[in-house]
Amino acid sequence: MSLSVIIPRPARCLHRLAKLDFVTRDTAAKMSTSQRETTFFLGNGNKIDKETFLEKIADSKAKVIMVGENHEDSTAHQLELDILTKLNNASTNKTGLSLEFYDRESQIVLNEYLSGMLDVDTWLEYSRPPANYADYQPLIDFCKTNSLPALASNCPRRYTRMVSRNGKEYLNQLKNSSSATLLPPLPYSGASEAYTKNFIDIMQKMGNTNPNVPTKMLDAQSLWDATMAHSLAGFLDQVDSVLHVTGYFHIQHKLGTVEHFHRYAPGVDILTVVILPSEQLDALNTEQLNIGDLVALTDIDTL
Asked: What is the pTM of this model?
């Protein structure tokens, strides 16, 4: 995976390392091609069934449910639709959907599509969708069918590119401009020590041992996290609860987006759900324990 991808999409390469985090490619190649059933756990490793998993999400008092995925995992995308359906059916409260890979400039277009003003082709033409937009379209269409609001939660990628090249302070000149509406409050907070360590570990797994390069990349990653968190905090004025779909690195161990959200909305409860491709599915390994409040393991060989 080219490191250049992290500039316009600072998180994508991190999620593609799911295979490297939990299994070697040689081991994965030897696995059966038949898909194995997804398994479900509490964060502490206690195994539960799928219905209990969904019930715990639906019964949670948390206003924000953050679901972390590997973006290439089709099983995760279906499970996210199951979660959204369960939330919508289980309560009379107004639930909203939030997506990482749509940015604030696309919000008007998203609103127009949800209202029925735009057909799907026009929506896709003007919303700058991610390359795998088809994976998220069922979630958006569910919102359209059920009159649920949806949030384009991120900043336009040109700002992460600016930060990747120039550092986080570069954006401060936009603080009093109209561009500020597309960003979190400036200056935004940097990464925590724990998040920084996780990020550097990922960079080293990718072969990047230059201590100076990850700093600006980490600043861009933190901008991604801060913008999503700030968007979610504001979205709670419109909904009773929100399901936020993002890459698992952004929320694992309650770091990243979770940390930024607590700065913008202190005291608001969050439930983290992490869906991980994994070689072994019968139990959580040491790295997977408490990676989320709830954890689902999917068959890595289907990626």
From this structure: 0.89
CA–CA distance, 62 with 40 (Å, rounded to integer): 19
For residue 36, give Cα distances in angstroms to 226, 283, 300.
36, 14, 9
201 vs 111, more confident: 111
Report residue 289: phi and psi, to 5°: -60, 130
Q: What are phi and psi of 148, to 5 degrees?
A: -100, 140
pLDDT tens digits, 57-69? 999 999 999 999 9
pLDDT digits (tens, 9 = 90+) for 203-240: 888 887 776 667 888 999 999 999 999 999 999 999 99
| Torsion sign, CA atoms 152, 163, 246, 277 | positive
Helix (H) or strand (E) holding 164: helix 157-166
Helix (H) or strand (E) holding 79: helix 74-90
pLDDT of 22 > 70? The answer is no
**Pair 250, 228: CB distance under 8 Å:** yes
With cut-offs at 50, 70 and 90, classify the pLDDT of residue 15.
very low
Tokens of 75: 């099983």
* CB contact set of 253 (below 8 Å; sequence gap of 6+): 194, 198, 290, 291
Please give the sequence-ordered ranges of beta strands (E in DSSP) within 227-269, or none if there are none.
241-247
DSSP state of 6: G
* Alpha-carbon distances of 56 from 41, 148, 166, 167, 245, rounded to whole Å: 11, 21, 43, 41, 17
Task: Give CA 111 to chain center in angstroms.
Answer: 21
Task: Name 39's Cβ contacts closer than 8 Å, sequence gap at least 6.
Answer: 47, 281, 282, 296, 297
User: What is the C-alpha to C-alpha distance for residues 288 and 279, in angstroms, rounded to an integer?
Assistant: 12
What are the DSSP calls for 177-235, one per residue? SGGGGGSPSSSPP---HHHHHHHHHHHHHTT---TTHHHHHHHHHHHHHHHHHHHHHHH
